[in-house]
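Final report, closing paragraph on structural work. Over the funding period we assembled a curated collection of sequence-structure pairs, and we close with a single example.
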Amino acid sequence: MNNNETEARELTTSPERLRELYRSAIEVHRTVAAREVHRTLANNPNTPIDILQLLACDRDEYIRFFVARNPSTPADTLEMLAHDHAFVGSSRTSYVRGNVGLNPNTPNRILELLAQDIECSVRRCVAQNPNLPIALLRTLAQDESVRSSVASNLSTPVDLLRLFASDKCEFTRRYVAENPSTSADILEILSQDRLHTVRTAVAGNFHTSASTLERLFSNCQAIGNSFKNRGTMISDLAKVNFQATGFFDPDIWFQEYENFILAIAKNPNTPLHILRILNCYPTGPMLAEALQNCVARNPNWNSN
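Its predicted structure, as stored:
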C-alpha cells in the first residue's frame, strides 16, 4: 500500500486532501496504484459527495461496488447504481446493486425495486437493510431464498422471528437465535433445537435468560461427559446417540463444542455459580485458559 492509498483510507484525512488524491490519481488512472487509490476513496465515508458521484461512473466495477455501499453516497447516485448489473469476484454473488440494497441511505422506492430483483443475492442484501420498511420485510419473509436474511435483520418484527424459530432451514433458525431483537421466550424455544449451531447462537445472545443458560450448560456437561477426549471418542460413539447431541460430524465436534461452552462463559446473564464452575472447568489447558479469560471479562463475574 503506497502513501496515497494510506491517506485515502484514513478517516482523519480532510475532504480537501481526499479531493486532491482523486485528481492526482486521474492522471495515471491506468496504473494499478492509481486504481487502488480510487477504490479506497470510494470506500471512505469522508470522501466528498461530488467525488463519489464521479467515482460512481467509473468503468472499474470494484470502484462502483464500493461507492454503492458508502454511507455518504447520495440517494440519486444510489438510484443510478441500482440499475448496475456488474458484479465483483467470480461467484456472481456480489453485485453493485446488492450494495445499494444494503446501503442505509437507499430510498424506499429503490429498495422496493431491488426486493424484486432476479438475483437472490441482491434480494438478500435488501432483506438485511436496517432501514427496510416493516411491510417490505414481511413481503421478503415469504421468499424462501432470502428468509434467513430477514431473520438476521434487527428491524424484523417479533411475530416474524417467532415464526422463523420453527423454520425448516437451519440458517434461518440460527439467525433468529443470533438476532439481538429476539425475545427471551423465543430463545427459550430455540435452546432446545436439535442442532448445536442454533443452541450455540442462543448461548451467545444477551437476551437469553439465566434459566435457559443453565439448561444449555447442563447440555454442555452431558456432551462433555460423553466424550472425555478425542482418543476415546470412537468407542464412546458406540455408547451414546451421537446425533442426539446435535454434533453430526465426529471429526470437528470438539471445536464446535468449544464454541458452545465459550459462548456460555461470555454471556452476562450466565449465573455466577456456573461461571465459578467454568473458571475451574476440567478440560484441556487451552480451553481452560480460554474459559478463564471469558469468565474474567464477564460483567456478572466482575460485579460479584
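The beta strands are 87-88, 94-95. Confidence is low (pLDDT under 50) at residues 237-245. We thank the funder for supporting this effort.
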